[in-house]
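Comment thread on ticket #2218

A.B. wrote:
> Attaching the input chain for the structure job we discussed in standup.
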Amino acid sequence: MAVQIADLFEHVVDVVPERPALIAGEVRYTYAELDAEANRFAHHLLGAGIEPGEHVGLMARNVAEHVVAMLGCFKARVVPININ
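C.D. wrote:
> Ran it. Output below, let me know if you need it in another format.
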């Protein structure tokens, strides 16, 4: 049973990977594409030495990359803190 936002999101990806998940201006992601981008961000965080449970500050406007970063944080099991 999924108990984390990232787990719930991955269940949706499994069911409807090609459906639009995010449209922000000219940027469009399907669920599969958004999942892949968030995975890359999560791996970047973990590769940089950020450990699960740590806090990560995010400063971004209301853009697609902010959603990718938030979801990537959830996938890495770190705590995203909006600082803008």
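A.B. wrote:
> Thanks. Noting for the ticket: The helical segments are 5-15, 31-47, 64-76.
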